[in-house]
Design goal:
Layout lengths: L23 H12 L2 E5 L5 E5 L2 H10 L4 E2 H13 L10 H9 L8 H16 L2 H4 L1 E3 H18 L5 H15 L8 H26 L10 H7 L10 H14 L2 H15 L2 H15 L7 H6 L1 H13 L6 E5 L3 E3 L2 E3 L4 E4 L28 H4 L17 H18 E5 L7 E2 L6 E2 L4 E6 L1
Parallel strand pairs: 2-8
Antiparallel strand pairs: 1-2, 3-5, 4-12, 5-8, 6-7, 9-12, 10-11
Helix pairs in contact: 5-7, 5-17, 7-12, 8-9, 9-11, 12-15, 12-17, 13-15
The chain binds protoporphyrin IX containing FE.
Protoporphyrin IX containing FE binds next to helix 11, helix 12 and helix 17.
Length: 440
């Protein structure tokens, strides 16, 4: 006889402590070990969230039972009001139509168009680093990744207009440094920023109308020219939602990953030497870095994976349950709000021994620790809804690290201040990452 499933009320309840902001991922591992892979948290306003923890949970939500978990019901309450509707918070069949339209622009072959733009923007932004003597990697990588996203994805050229958009997005997502008593109060404060940002973007989108269909150089041009079977195009509101989500998803995450990667390599001389030797062998000390070279940089690739394992920019992803689903002996009824802490398994010592150690070689043969447990490494999500920008991000982060590490020696100024904070879904180095820069 099968055992009766337990109800949501019977799921063990957990509570955050102030320290949870910093050790969120190891904490999920500890909860799962102590209480099982399903735990819940009750919010003061009467809301409740269920956490599904570990590689098995990742597989359930992202692959085997994914139709039962809605992106729309999960993400829209988190980002819908500020960003609108894009791929991330759409469900099928609408999602699948839109993803099909965008997929070609994210295929690896397409990266040969983007890489020269990335190379140019990386060099321009890093040009004065030595002169400045000290920079904050987190600030600098944000400038680079936003310039890159703005130009490659939506054709906005770097300059004061793009700087303004970056600052507005930053305020919209991260706030203005102010504290708010309630979500409503916070919303009140961001609405004028959102309206200003949307006004700027609509102007830029409108300016793109009328560009001939054969000049599809970026995704915005693709969207402007897209027609369904009845000949209808996307509305400005639909394009705006996509542009917002592509710009945010396309730079917040790569900013954090590249800042951590540069920091980790700069504080691990042995691994740094291996990476620098590889970069020099494949791309020399100067000149254009080709896609072929980027793709051949295996050691740097392992370091990128390791930085993403230790400090995944996206700690967890939200979902709404669409149909009753079972997991870990519990019945999760339709309507349950779920968080999948995709990065929890990254800190599980049973999968990645000594998870606190930066060891890129754990991804190289013969260790290949990620391959032993499917869905354990989920920096970019997984299954059919895996990050559409995964190739884009890997190429960008690799090219950026290669260029910076072949030109400069970076020395962290205050390593004791460098730590990742996860206020919610997205993580970032709390006080930035300040480094001294010298020419090599
Ligand atoms: C280090 C960089 C990045 C990380 C860690 C990252 C992480 C993720 C994750 C975990 C998801 C899955 C979300 C879920 O299952 O709910 C996702 C989806 C997505 N990402 Fe990324 N991402 C990165 C870079 C990018 C870039 C560069 C772009 C665009 C250029 C992008 C655009 C998107 C979009 C549009 C989705 C939704 C895809 C869909 O649902 O069909 N991301 N990303």
């Amino acid at each position: 006889m099968t055992q009766a499933l337990k109800s949501v009320d019977q799921i063990p309840t957990v509570e955050y402590t102030p320290e949870s902001l910093y050790n969120r991922l190891p904490q999920f591992v500890a909860w799962a070990r102590e209480l099982g892979p399903v735990v819940k948290q009750d919010w003061p306003d009467g809301g409740r969230v269920v956490y599904l923890i570990g590689a098995e949970a990742n597989k359930l939500v992202m692959q085997s039972q994914r139709e039962q978990f809605s992106h729309d019901l999960g993400w829209t309450p988190n980002i819908g009001e500020t960003l609108g509707k894009g791929l991330l918070n759409m469900d099928p069949p609408e999602h699948d139509r839109h993803r099909k339209m965008m997929n070609p622009a994210f295929a690896i072959a397409y990266m040969s168009r983007y890489l020269p733009v990335m190379n140019r923007l990386i060099s321009e932004r890093a040009r004065d680093w030595v002169e400045r003597g000290e920079v904050d990697l987190f600030e600098e990588t944000r400038k680079i990744t936003f310039d890159v996203a703005a130009e490659t994805l939506v054709g906005f050229r770097a300059g004061p207009q793009v700087d303004l958009l970056r600052e507005l997005f930053f305020k919209l997502i991260n706030g203005d440094g102010q504290q708010f008593a309630s979500e409503a109060e916070w919303m009140q404060s961001v609405l004028p920023i959102r309206d200003r940002l949307m006004g700027e973007l609509v102007r830029l989108i409108e300016a793109r109308r009328g560009i001939p269909a054969d000049d599809r150089s970026d995704i915005l041009a693709m969207m402007v020219n897209a027609r369904d079977e009845d000949g209808n195009g996307l509305s400005v509101e639909q394009m705006l939602g996509h542009v917002n989500i592509l710009l945010v998803a396309g730079h917040e995450t790569t900013t954090t990953l590249s800042a951590w990667l540069l920091y980790l390599l700069s504080t691990h001389p042995q691994q740094l030497a291996v990476v620098q030797a590889e970069v020099e062998a494949l791309a020399g000390r100067e000149g254009e870095i080709t896609l072929e070279a980027v793709r051949a940089m295996k050691q740097l690739g392992y370091a990128v994976q390791e930085a993403g394992r230790m400090y995944p920019p996206v700690a967890m992803v939200p979902r709404g349950v669409l149909e009753d689903v079972e997991f870990g002996g519990y019945l999760l009824p339709k309507g349950t709000f779920v968080f999948l802490p995709i990065g929890a398994a990254h800190w599980d010592a049973a999968i990645f021994p000594n998870p606190e150690r930066f060891e890129p070689e754990r991804f190289a043969p013969p260790r290949e620790e990620d391959k032993r447990t499917p869905y354990a490494l989920a920096t970019f999500g997984g299954g059919p809804r895996i990050c559409i920008g995964v190739n884009f991000a890997r190429v960008e982060v690799t090219a950026m690290a290669a260029e910076i590490l072949r030109r400069f020696t970076l020395t962290p100024v205050a390593p004791e201040e460098v730590r990742q904070i996860y206020p919610g879904i997205i993580g970032q180095p709390e006080k930035g990452i300040r480094v001294r820069v010298e020419a090599r």
